[in-house]
Design brief:
With about 280 residues, the chain is mainly beta. The protein contains 1 helix and 20 strands. It has a 6-stranded mixed β-sheet, with no helix packed on it. A 5-stranded antiparallel β-sheet has the order 13-12-18-19-20, with no helix packed on it. The protein starts with a helix and ends in a 26-residue tail after the last strand.
């Protein structure tokens, strides 16, 4: 029986004492998910020391230390040179770091490591990722549009995104239905520009049939996005076909360019009309 009481004391009583007299128990990091070049960012590191005394708080970007807070040092804050980071020391402290003048190289995985003094020497850490994004200044561009289409003709279009970082993701839609068939999509290598900006091109190629025209028209749209919550833009072509008369056909093509939103809509409409005259 004494052995059973010892086991009970070891498994139930001691953990309770450690919980009451516990030290550093958790660390939680909070960083902005997205920022644009030139912005500031506040990185937050919250923690629970319990009965422990803080020894240091260290911040790392992609495993490289860039900031340290040691209460017993004078001054307690110290920053280290890391490419893409500028620490605002007066605004930084034991639970936060403020970065200013962000650029594309500021993107990365940020980790906060908290350490306690003797006797526990406990440490805990947490991490989160921040992306600095360069949004496209241009709307996606559709090329290869013909003035006239007839049933049986082949659609052969390209959609090119504006320069951005990271690269835009492109999707084609026909009558509001996303094109997912690999046979209809032509993928091209990404093009890298200055300052690591990237543009993508996605082709669309398929033969026209009656089923593509709903009520005499077909809507073809290209959508470029960098995280749908952050930025999205589209360009749309509306193609209308008139019914054949005798052995001849009349075709009216409307190429409608509409740039959609980044928190709003703006756009310009270009109408190109082509009329075939019938010889009676």
């Amino acid at each position: 029986m004494p052995g059973c009481w010892m086991l009970l004391f070891y498994h139930l009583i001691i953990p309770g004492i450690l919980q009451v007299c516990g030290g550093l128990s958790w660390v939680r990091v909070s960083v902005p998910h997205y920022r644009v070049p030139g912005d500031m960012a506040q990185l937050q590191c919250d923690y629970e020391l319990g009965e422990d005394t803080l020894y240091s708080v260290k911040w790392y970007k992609d495993h490289e230390e860039f900031y340290r807070y040691v209460p017993k040092s004078s001054p307690p804050q110290h920053s280290y040179k890391v490419d893409g980071l500028q620490v605002d020391l007066p605004l930084s402290g034991s639970r936060k770091v403020v970065l200013r003048s962000l650029n594309l190289k500021s993107s990365g995985l940020y980790r906060c490591e908290v350490s306690a003094e003797a006797p526990s020497f406990a440490s805990a850490q947490s991490e989160s990722r921040m992306e600095v994004v360069y949004l496209p200044k241009e709307d996606p561009l559709i090329t290869g549009v013909e003035l006239q289409y007839q049933i049986g003709d082949e659609i052969n279009l390209n959609c090119t995104s504006g320069k951005s970082h990271p690269a835009s993701i492109l999707h084609w839609y026909i009558n509001e239905q996303q094109v997912v068939s690999p046979d209809a999509l032509v993928r091209y290598p990404s093009e890298v520009h200055r300052h690591s900006l990237i543009s993508n091109t996605l082709g669309l190629k398929f033969p026209l049939s009656n089923r593509h025209f709903l009520g005499g028209s077909m809507r073809v749209k290209c959508v470029a996005s960098i995280s749908p919550m952050l930025w999205q833009s589209d360009r749309e072509s509306v193609m209308q076909r008139m019914s054949p008369l005798l052995d001849n056909r009349e075709a009216l093509l409307l190429v409608k360019s509409a740039a959609s939103h980044s928190l709003g809509y703006c756009g310009a409409v270009i109408l190109l009309r082509f009329l075939l005259f019938l010889i009676l």
